[in-house]
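Data card: per-record layout.
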Amino acid sequence: MTDKTRHIPPSPVLFRRNRDVPAEVISKLEGVEEGHGEKRLAIKPLIAGKSMLFMEAHRPQGLIDPEHAHKDHESICYLVSGRVRVVIEGESWIAEPGDVWVHPPGVKHYHEALEDSIQIEIKSPPTKTWS
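The structure for this 131-residue chain is written out next.
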């Protein structure tokens, strides 16, 4: 995926209903195989502006993301529901609903879903890291 294909253009609308945006069940995250069988990450890219993307990540219990780093953007995350182990640069936390964290550019991180979970993520600039 080139940098040009990774960029997500601004949404053509100013308002969207969550229910109108389909979830994308993904197979790769930053080019690395993601999950297996029914344990797959689903992403809903809800809306994008010129400088950021607002998305939901749905993780089934037991899913462990591959460790990865974002070379060209940062992400801020908010846990809506469930429990997730968040590992950033080798430091680990257990996130519960309402907790927030950041993935700075170039910093290795991954998530482990301890329960079915929904996470909100804002990426800046708006970048597609999945396929």
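Known properties of this structure: The chain has one helix and eleven strands. The mean pLDDT is 92.

See the next section for split statistics.
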